[in-house]
Amino acid sequence: MPRPIALGPDEGLPLLDILTAGRLIHDAPGLPAVRVLRHCRDFGYLVVRVQLTGPPAVFRCPGRLTYQTEWVDPQDHTGWTVTVSGPAQRITNGYQQARYRLMLHAGPQTSHEHLLRIRPDNVTGYRLTRAPA
């Protein structure tokens, strides 16, 4: 059974660079919502690309978002998990949008797409290791 060992922010944040996908966790009317999406890190920020379903609507970026990702080996169940949260803002600058779309390997822009920037001020993580025999 893997044993979790706490990671500090200096250990957890670089792990976000290993993978490009995770889960955005936010409050939706009535219950929490989870969206699987892509991310990248840039100058200390975490940038995520959100594609909303349904007709385009006025999108309001919540003041704070939480993002979680992990890597777990399917054979021995070791790996890591990192969760970051912080203030979020929508990216509206055209140059920044184009730059982040390249970094995220995004397809053609649609009216359903939004780019969000999170400034991580709370980072928690765990390395999942094998307990000594």
Explain what this protein looks like in three dimensions:
The protein is mainly beta and 133 residues long. 13% of the residues lie in helices and 52% in strands. It has 2 helices and 8 strands. The protein has helices spanning 9-15, 94-103, and strands at residues 2-7, 21-28, 31-42, 45-51, 64-72, 79-90, 113-118, 122-130. Strands 2-3-4-7-6-5 form a 6-stranded antiparallel barrel. Strand 2 (21-28) and strand 3 form a beta hairpin. The longest helix is centred in the last third of the chain and has 10 residues, at 94-103. The radius of gyration is 16 Å and the shape is elongated. The model has no long low-confidence stretch (mean pLDDT 85).
Number of strands: 8
What string, H for helix and E for strand, traces the elements in order? EHEEEEEHEE
Reading side by side through the largest sheet, how are the strands ordered? 2-3-4-7-6-5
SS field, number of helical segments: 2
User: What can be said about the biggest beta sheet?
Assistant: 6 strands, antiparallel, barrel
Q: How much helical structure, as a percent, in the residues?
A: 10-25%
Mean pLDDT, to the nearest integer, reads 85
Compact description:
With 133 residues, the chain is mainly beta.
Summarize the SSE layout with pairings.
Layout: E1 2-7, H1 9-15, E2 21-28, E3 31-42, E4 45-51, E5 64-72, E6 79-90, H2 94-103, E7 113-118, E8 122-130
Antiparallel strand pairs: 1-8, 2-3, 2-5, 3-4, 4-7, 5-6, 6-7, 6-8
